[in-house]
Every structure is written in C-alpha cells, then in structure tokens.
Amino acid sequence: MEAATSQPTAPQAQVHHHQFEFTGKAGEFFKIWIVNILLTIVTLGIYSAWAKVRTNRYFYGSTKVAGSAFSYLADPIQILKGRLIAMAFLIALSLSIEFSPALYGILILVLLVATPWIIARGISFNARMSAWRNVRFNSKVTMGGVFLHFMVLPLVVPFTMGLAAPWVVQEQKKYLVKNYEFGNETFEPTFTTGDFYSLYLKAFGLMILAGLSFLIPVAGVLIAPLLYLSAIALISVGQFNLIYGKSKLAGVQFEASMETLPFMWIYFTNLLVIALTLGLGAPWAMVRMAKHRADCLIMIADDSLDSFTDHQQEQQSALGEEMGDVFDVAAGL
Questions:
Q1: Per its UniProt entry, which superkingdom is the organism in (predicted)?
Q2: 333 pLDDT band (50/70/90 cuts)?
C-alpha cells in the first residue's frame, strides 16, 4: 500500500501585541492651549469651538496603535452651531424666570424631555467624529436606551440602599459598549455584574476603613481623606480596566493594566502642579495623564488586522458625508 500523502497545513496567523502610545509633548500642546485660551477670551467664547477641535485633533493624532494614529474629524462650525443653540436656550430660560413663570415651566419640561435625546446625539456625534485608519467609529445608542439606562435604572439604587449600584453601572457601561461600532463591526463587552460587584466591594471596604480611622485621635483626620480618595481612584482605575480590557471587536482583543497607586500619584501631582502654576501647568498634566492611559492599554490582534481595517474602509466608503447636520448641531448642546 502506498503511504498516505500528508496535506499541507495552512500557516497559523501570528498574534501580535500592539502597545498604545501617546507621542504628544507638553511644550507642543502648551502653545495650542495658550492660544486657544487667548482667542476664546478675545472672541467672547466664540473661538471655543475651534479650541475644542484643535485640542481633540492634537490628542487624537498623538495617540497611536499598530503604527497608525487616531483622527478627530469634527468641523468647528458644527460645534459652534450647537453651542449657540444651547446659549440661546439658557438665555431664554434665565429670562423666563423673571418675566414668565409659565414659560419657565414649559422650558424646563422641554429640557427634561429632550435630555435623553441630547445625550444620545452627543454620544453618536463624538463617535462618528472619531476614526482610525480612515475608518470611523459609530454609536447606535437611542433616546429610549439612554432614558432607560441613565434616568430610570439609577432610581433603583436608593430603593436597594445602594446595593444595586454596581449592577446599574455595569448595565450602563454594557449598553454603551455593545452599541459602539468600528466600521461595520460592533464591540462586544465581556465584563460581568460580578466584576463590578467585586470592584465596588473593595472600594466599600476602603470607605469602611476610612470611617474607622476616625477612632484614631488626630491621625484619623489625615488617614480618612486618603482612604476615601483611594476608593474613588480604585473605582476609576477598575472601570478603565474592565471596560477596555474586557471588550472585543471581531476577534480583536484589548488588555488594560492600569494600577491604582500610580494613577493616584499622577493625578494628585498633576493637581499640585496646576495649583502651584496657577493653571499654567494644565497642558503638562493633560499630556502626562494621556500618556499614562496609553501606556496601560494593549491591542491584541493577528496578522489579519491590516485586511480587517482595509475591509472596513471599503465598506464605509459609500457612506461619505451623508449624515445630517441636525444631529451634529444637537451634539453641541
């Protein structure tokens, strides 16, 4: 009998770990920041729309992964329109208090009804104005979804004496992530309610220790605030790791490794520098925090990453600029 011929096996895709990096410099951003402030003052706030776009374009363009930087695509005029509408509404609201209480009540009701829509459109606008390798992000959040997750679910917390808080936060984050898209692919959250309860229980433990520390004369006054702030930092860092580290995109995974103590050190030394420099240290602090966040994030993908992004770009090319300006205006609110 002839020996069976072995079939050649297809080569396995090689997995790569792509480190996020932030290449911005404090000196570079300071020039942008100070010009933004001066022109915003001179133009009585009108330039603030351009200032926002310049700032976002610098931070997006300085954030890279797999050799490619992110892009911020918003037009300052879109943002300015939204801010002018918001300002007109606030002026009308302020004047109505003095001259027409009935109109004031109507405007408050309009604002309450419109709030979920404003939030949903703002999230969608920010997503669509973000891109990587010429492929846009997108968000499918809806007015009803925002109303349910951010206005109804929080009402459960006081009725459960706070016990439902981790579940509510988890539901909110899951809703945002699973409605976020890159091209035509949707992000998939893999974090669980148990992850959030574990995180919040640790933070609650620190708060209990903070309360008990007051039993120590004098020292408790110093220890308690530190423990409370540590609990807040723990939640912030933990949520960063859960949201970014436990979300997938069509086989692309992420690894988040932020730690509480380094985060606290950067955060509080940033505040100290800003205070000592009367605010002039803000650009340095912003660049420093952006670099730290990037250093804590890795994208895990195989050799198909290039073909994946090329495919997404081809799928999106037909969309062009067909999005209506009305939603972009609303995002400015």
A1: Bacteria
A2: very low
Residue 15 has pLDDT above 70, yes or no: yes
Average pLDDT over residues 276-299: 97
Strand pairing category for 253-256 and 68-72: unpaired
How many angstroms separate the CA atoms of 75 and 132, rounded? 17
Is residue 78 a contact partner of residue 333, using CB atoms and an 8 Å limit?
no
- Say how many residues make up the chain: 333
- What does each C-alpha distance from 248 to 71, 178, 261, 269 come to in angstroms? 21, 10, 27, 33
DSSP single-letter state for residue 216: S
Please check the confidence at residue 13 and state whether its pLDDT lies above 60.
yes
CA angle 174, 116, 242 (to 5 degrees): 20
Looking up tokens 């010009």 gives 35
Distance from C-alpha of 158 to C-alpha of 151, rounded to nearest angstrom: 13
Give the orientation angle of helix 282-295 with respect to helix 260-276, to 10 degrees: 170
